[in-house]
Design a protein that fits this description.
With 117 residues, this protein is α+β, with helices and mostly antiparallel strands. The chain is 32% helix and 38% strand. The longest helix has 13 residues. One of its GO terms (molecular function) is ubiquitin-like modifier activating enzyme activity.
């Protein structure tokens, strides 16, 4: 479900319905130079390609770069991962209940966040 130009209450309600029924949900909007995007993918499975890291054997190279690990771009492995995020009202409730950590995070929050709210 893709949603735009709706009230926050409507977005949360539709997201709850989608989350409960395992339907992927995307929402976003733009207000001049400011905008937002939220995606609730539920339990989302994906594959990530990782480049193999090889270490240089001692004695092959001299100098300060000899001890650094090098990336071998010819060898890659595929790693399957699962990602899951809670719906937005759950994460807001959780962050509000953390006390001092929530206050510190609030100080680091960009003013644009409150503008969009």
């Amino acid at each position: 479900v893709c949603l735009t130009c709706c009230s926050r209450d409507a977005m949360v309600k539709i997201d709850q319905i989608c989350h409960k029924n395992s339907v992927k949900f995307f929402t976003g909007d733009v207000f001049g130079y400011h905008g937002y995007m939220f995606a609730d993918l539920g339990d989302h499975e994906f594959v990530e390609e990782k480049t193999k890291v090889t270490k240089v054997s001692p004695g092959v190279e001299d100098g300060p770069d000899a001890k650094k690990a090098k990336l071998d771009s010819s060898e890659t492995t595929m790693v399957k991962k699962v990602s899951g995020k809670p719906p937005p009202e759950t994460s807001e409730t959780r962050s509000a209940s953390r006390g001092e950590k929530a206050k510190a995070a609030l100080k680091r929050t960009a003013p644009d966040y409150f503008l969009l709210q």
